[in-house]
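Inputs:
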Amino acid sequence: MNVRNLFITAVRAIAKNKMRSSLTSVGIIIGVSSVIVMVGMGNSARVAVRDKITTFGTNAMSVFRPSRAFDGRDIENLRRIFHVKYISPLIYDTYIPVVFQNRNMLSRIYGVNNDYFQIKDMALQSGRYFSAEEVTALARVVIIGTTVWNEIFGNADPIGRTVLIKSVPFQVIGLLAEQGSAFSGRDFDNVLVMPYTTASTRIKNRKDFDELYIAAHNEGMVEETAEVVRQYFRRKHNLPPGAPDDFRVKTSIEQLKVAENISKTLTILLAGIALISLFVGGVGIMNIMLVSVSERTREIGIRMAIGAKRNDILLQFLIESVTLSSVGGAVGIALGMSIYYAIIYFLEWPFIMSFMSIIVSFLFSFAVGIFFGYYPARKAADLKPIDALRYE
Amino acid sequence: MENNIIDIKDLVKIYRLSDEVSVRALKGVSLTVRRGEFISIMGASGSGKSTFMNILGFLDTPTSGKYILDGIDGSSLSLNEKAEIRNKKIGFIFQGFNLLSRTSALENVELPLMYKGGVSPQQMRERAQKLLAMVGLAGREHHHPNKLSGGEQQRVAIARSLINEPAILLADEPTGNLDTKSSNEVMDIFTSLNREMGITIILVTHEPDIAEYSDRKVVFRDGLIIEDAPISKRKKAAVTGKSR
C-alpha cells in the first residue's frame, strides 16, 4: 500500500472522531504554541535589552562607587591614555524641580561634558551641544529631554527660552532626540543635561563626580581599556596586589552578558516546560491510539485477511498518530505566533520571526507522533489475523 | 499446472488452553480439491470446519500436517508471504460481510489491489467498477456499506474477493445472515463464477439447501471428515445470469 493511500486512510480515521482527535491534539497544540511564544518572547526580550544597553554604547563603560572621589585630575589623566577615546564625568541628581512660566515638574539632572553625547550616542532634535567656554565658565545652559519638553513647553519651541532649575535660571540650548525608557520603567527622556561644572557648583554644591563614562575606540578594545582604567585607579588608590578593587568598572558588554545569561537560563527553563507539555501531549496521543487500535481490531483483521502485511498495518497507525501530532504542531505554531504577536504588540517589543523555532517545533511534534505512535502501531501490526477477525 | 489445487494430508490443530487442557480441533484431516471444483463443507458447530477454513485461508497455522495450495507448501511461509498469498490467491467471503464501514463499495473492492500494489488508480477503479457491475451493483459504487442491504453488502464482498483473480474462493456461511431471496442471488453468483469462470469454491454452510448448489459435499464431525461425496442432483441456478 502506498503512503498516499495510507495517509487518506489516516485522515478518514481521524475525521471520523473529530472531537476525540481535536482533544487529543490539544496537548501538542499547547506544547508547541508555548514553545513558539517562549522562544519568540526570549528573542524579543534579548533584542529589547540589547537596544536599551546599546544606548549606553557597546564600546562604553562606566566607573563608579570609588573609595576616593573622582575629580578633574582623573579626567585629564585618563584622557591622555591612548585607549580612551571619550571621557565624561557624570554628576547626577534626582527630584530636581524645573519651572517654565506657570508649569513645573520634577526631573533629573545629568552634569556632563560634550563627550557624554558621543559615548551615549545621544542625538539632538534641535539646538546645539555645549561650547568649550560654557563648560569652563559654568554657564547656565541646559539641554532638555523630550518628556520635559512635552510637560512644561507643551511641545512649543524651547530653544532660547529660560527655565528655572532649583530656582536658578537656565537657558535651553538643545532638545534631545527621544531615548525611550528602561526595562525598569525609568524614563530616559525626563532629563536635564548641563555642563558638569555648572551642575557641581550651582545645583549640587559638590566637586566630586558620581561616575565616569569612558568610550574605547571600538568594541574589541573595551576589555583592554577597562583593564587600563582599572590599573589607573588601583595605582591611584595604592592598592597592593591581590587586594580587591575599591571601585567598580562596568562595561556594556558585561551588562549584555548578564542579560544574555538571564535570557539563556530563562530559555532553558521554558524549553524544559515546553518539553514536558510535549511529552504529556505525546502520552495523550499514545493513549488515544491504543484505544483506536482496540476499537478497530476487527478492521485490522479484515485488512490482514485481504492481504495487508505487518508493515502496512504498522504504517497505517503510525501515519495516523503522526498526522494527529503534526496537525497539532501546525495549529500550535499558528496559535503560538498569534499569541506571541499579540503580546509583542502590547509591550511594543520588536517582532522577531524565528524560522528555526518553527521548523524545530514542527519536527518535534512529528517526532512525538512517531515515538508515541510506535507502540500502539506495533500492537496493531502484531495482531494475529484470525484473532483480530474474530474480535467482537 | 497441477490438477489438484488443494492437497491436504493429516492436518491436526490443537488449541492449548492451559497446561492441562488442550482441544484437538482437527484430528488428522486429509482432502484434495481439484481445480474448478465447488465444494460445500458441512458440520455442526465445534466440528472443526471453521478451524479447517481458517487454515485453508492462511489465517491460522496447523499444529501438524501438510497443506499445499496451488503448488505452494504452506508450512514454510513467513507471515509476509502468507499475507501475500491471502492477497493474491485467496478470496474471502464471510458470514458478517466484513466490509470496512466508512469506505465506499468501490473502495472496499479496490482495497486488496491497494495492498497488492503496482496498479494505477485508474486501473483499480476500472476493475472494481467492472466487478461491481458483474455482481449487479452498477450505480451503487459510492454507497457506504450501511446504506446497502445485506445481500448487496455480500455482493460487494464477493466483488472484493475477486479483484485479484484468486485461485480459490473461501466462503464461510456467506448466506448465514441473508434472507432467502438474497441467499439465492448470492448462490447464483457463486454458481456462475464456478461454471463460467472455473473458479474453485469452498463454501461452509449448515443449510442442506445451500449445499445443493455445489458438486461435492464434505461433512465434518469432531475434527474429522466423516462424509465426502459428490452431490447427485446439483441444484440448477434458479435465476442464472439475471444478477450478473
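The longest strand of chain B covers residues 4-16. Flag for discussion at group meeting.
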